[in-house]
């Protein structure tokens, strides 16, 4: 059975994750590459935060599972993956008190849903936004406070990898296949509408492009393989690196047999290139996720 679900997304957004900052300058989180360019990124932790926020709002995920009883903010001892879908999908660590020497080290569970950082596909060019609170200052006859904020509008990419065999299983706990299936489906539905609230803005992180499928192994096949180019016609997705992955094999099977691609119409200029690569497996983004959900139901043998 195909237990490894993975997909890589392209979305478009602006200024998604700020770091520590210097003085009155708010700095975006950035990476520097050997080509001399800087690329902004949003950490996997911030993506997880927004996934959980939306899941609580849309599907009523239980978030009352945290305390600070041992001096560390962490998941409560009396909470398990039965009560917390968040703990099931994203893992947990529960530390013991210093005087609990007989209990050994921390109790941990690895994440069954793996997220990469969300990394820009266009380099950061030092764009800044000058801000002040003149409107408030004028009300009381004071000078406004000043701030400088880094800004970056770009396409971004990130990858999700899920081991379906580990969802809903933790030690002696094993949830029903119906519940395991439902948790994965809820997660996929959230990805379709993912957004981020930041500094008075709501950035739309729903996919413009997505490629992946269900495979015999939980491996991020398309991580680092999705790139964009620009020419006189506009933005296009580099199809060569994706084609190399699609036409590769694992355990004697071509990945093409299990790979699907979703793309928003007119989002990129070279959709026709992928029709030649994937044929009928090229579809809308919504149908792409419907195909994943179908595969998830087949894995868990749920109608």
TrEMBL record:
The keyword Ribosomal protein does not apply. It comes from the Bacteria. InterPro entries: Cas7/Cst2/DevR_sub_I-B/Tneap, CRISPR-assoc_Cas7/Cst2/DevR. Keywords: Antiviral defense. GO terms for biological process: defense response to virus. CRISPR (clustered regularly interspaced short palindromic repeat) is an adaptive immune system that provides protection against mobile genetic elements (viruses, transposable elements and conjugative plasmids). CRISPR clusters contain spacers, sequences complementary to antecedent mobile elements, and target invading nucleic acids. CRISPR clusters are transcribed and processed into CRISPR RNA (crRNA). This is CRISPR-associated autoregulator, Cst2 family.
């Amino acid at each position: 059975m195909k237990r490894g679900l993975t997909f890589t997304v392209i979305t478009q957004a602006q200024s998604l994750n700020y770091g520590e900052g210097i003085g009155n300058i708010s700095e975006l989180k950035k990476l520097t590459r050997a080509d001399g360019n800087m690329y902004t990124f949003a950490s996997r932790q911030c993506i997880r935060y927004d996934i959980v926020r939306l899941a609580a709002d849309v599907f009523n995920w239980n978030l009352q599972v945290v305390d600070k009883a041992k001096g560390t903010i962490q998941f409560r001892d009396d909470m398990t993956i039965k009560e917390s879908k968040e703990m099931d999908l994203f893992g947990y660590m529960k530390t013991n008190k210093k005087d609990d020497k007989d209990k050994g080290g921390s109790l941990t569970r690895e994440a069954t849903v793996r997220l990469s950082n969300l990394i820009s596909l266009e380099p950061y060019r030092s764009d800044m936004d000058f801000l002040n609170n003149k409107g408030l200052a004028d009300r009381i006859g004071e000078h406004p406070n000043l701030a400088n904020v880094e800004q970056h509008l770009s396409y971004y990419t990130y990858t999700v990898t899920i081991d379906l065999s580990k969802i809903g299983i933790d030690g002696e706990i094993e949830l029903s296949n119906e519940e395991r299936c439902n948790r994965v489906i809820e997660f996929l539905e959230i990805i379709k509408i993912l957004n981020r609230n930041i500094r008075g803005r709501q950035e739309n992180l729903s996919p413009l492009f997505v490629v992946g499928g269900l495979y015999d192994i939980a491996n991020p096949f398309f991580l680092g393989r999705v790139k964009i180019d620009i020419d006189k016609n506009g933005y296009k997705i580099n199809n060569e690196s994706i084609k190399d992955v699609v036409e590769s094999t694992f355990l004697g099977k071509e990945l093409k047999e299990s790979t699907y691609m979703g793309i928003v119409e007119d989002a990129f200029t070279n959709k026709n290139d992928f029709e030649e690569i994937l044929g009928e497996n090229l579809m809308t983004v919504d149908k792409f996720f419907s195909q994943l959900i179908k595969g998830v139901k087949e894995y868990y043998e749920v109608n």
